[in-house]
Recover the amino acids of this structure.
């Protein structure tokens, strides 16, 4: 792609703009997460979270395969396939991938893994937001597809805080936290690679604008999932027809 | 498609099952509509509704064109193209199509039509749900695409009630209601045609199951849009980053 022009910003400026978007829009600020970290969620609310978030997890390797399917560059494909391997594992029960680890978190909340696998009761709004992510990486430019992954630049500190607070406030979940421990090393590696790629390939102001908008769109996708959870299970607490209803619904 | 088998239900039974789904899941029961019809919405909340619903309106002819693009049968195409004409009109200002009429409703609330046209401030959750509708009709079977339009079976009585209550509770909106008046004759014609087509082409239990699920999915799409509006603008009243903020937000 084009070299930076006089009106484009340099690599480090673009990285700063992307970080600023995360500061303003990443879901570390969402009230559902704030309640989670303050220990204010009920078991049923945490069940709703892991069940809905499983739908997101289940689409991550599909999203990454859609990106892989669009890469002409074998170097990029080789680097990106790591993400699919991280999530799907290699079938060795001793070294589970991210999806199997998330199913353990599902079980730690007291739900059956089959409920997550079948997707029964997942909020339609979760599906709409997550499917929008798969469509974004399939239909927009490769630059936008890769830039949309940059929320991982911000996930490290959120996950560190989350693991700490989940252990503190919900000790009965402690056996299910392996997913997050894995992500603490995987996410920064992935984010560094993607940030380097984006800053190299977004040389013009128009490309930088696309990259920033793709990151905003991804933040919207994450935020909308928590809005839907909050509406259905916290306040006003109205799950839509057909959605999961926790046994302790209403208590907090 | 296949003729009914011993375990399939007849035409009138399928129509009853579809009506039952509407009774349980159509958005006439949604608390946002209940508040609207009771006169409890502020002007700002109505602005948020017309702005977000404009995004839905703007995608209807695109959705219908996606269906048209998949029809092998010229009779079906001729019947279905009416919907595109109803929404887009023929450019004659004296006989505006549904989209232009909706823009008049936007203006009647005090918003500028440009805000709807640019989509600035539309909730991401609205886009995700509406785009899911376009993807449904593009990617699922033609039977499911057409069955997903059957929410129009239920729109007549909702629109009749709505026009009456909007006039009663929000008289300043009265100049903007032409959209609904047009739909009172268009929607039943469209629904009758689609119901007849679906009952003719869903002969097997598997096909009838697909048709029912497509109607459920469409109800989910409508419901999720109102959930997002309620969450952002009624209770708790937290618009996501970048979303429209009414001037009277918080008053009711």
């Amino acid at each position: 792609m084009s070299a930076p022009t006089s009106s484009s910003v340099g690599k480090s400026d673009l990285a700063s703009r992307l970080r600023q978007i995360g500061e303003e829009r990443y879901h570390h600020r969402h009230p559902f997460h704030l309640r989670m970290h303050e220990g204010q969620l009920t078991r049923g609310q945490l069940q709703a979270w892991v069940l809905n978030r499983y739908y997101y997890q289940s689409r991550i390797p599909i999203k990454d395969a859609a990106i892989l399917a669009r890469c002409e560059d074998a170097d990029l494909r080789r680097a990106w396939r790591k993400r699919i391997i991280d999530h799907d594992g290699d079938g060795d029960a001793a070294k589970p991938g991210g999806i199997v680890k998330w199913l353990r978190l599902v079980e730690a909340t007291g739900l059956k893994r089959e409920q997550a696998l079948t997707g029964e009761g997942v909020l339609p709004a979760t599906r709409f937001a997550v499917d929008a992510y798969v469509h974004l990486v399939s239909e927009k430019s490769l630059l936008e597809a890769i830039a949309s992954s940059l929320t991982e630049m911000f996930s490290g500190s959120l996950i560190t805080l989350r693991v700490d607070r989940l252990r503190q406030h919900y000790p009965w979940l402690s056996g299910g936290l392996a997913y997050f421990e894995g992500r603490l090393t995987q996410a920064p590696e992935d984010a560094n690679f993607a940030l380097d790629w984006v800053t190299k390939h977004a040389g013009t102001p128009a490309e930088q604008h696309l990259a920033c908008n793709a990151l905003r769109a991804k933040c919207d996708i994450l935020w909308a999932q928590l809005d839907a959870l909050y509406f259905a299970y916290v306040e006003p607490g109205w799950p839509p027809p057909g959605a999961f209803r926790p046994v302790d619904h209403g208590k907090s």
The domain at 11-233 of chain A is CATH 1.20.910.10 (Heme Oxygenase; Chain A). The longest helix of chain A spans residues 205-233. The interface with chain B takes residues 24-25, 31, 123-125, 127-129, 131-132, 135, 216-217, 219-221, 223-224, 227-228, 230-232, 235-236, 238, 240-242 of chain A (CB under 8 Å). DSSP finds eleven helices and no strands in chain A.
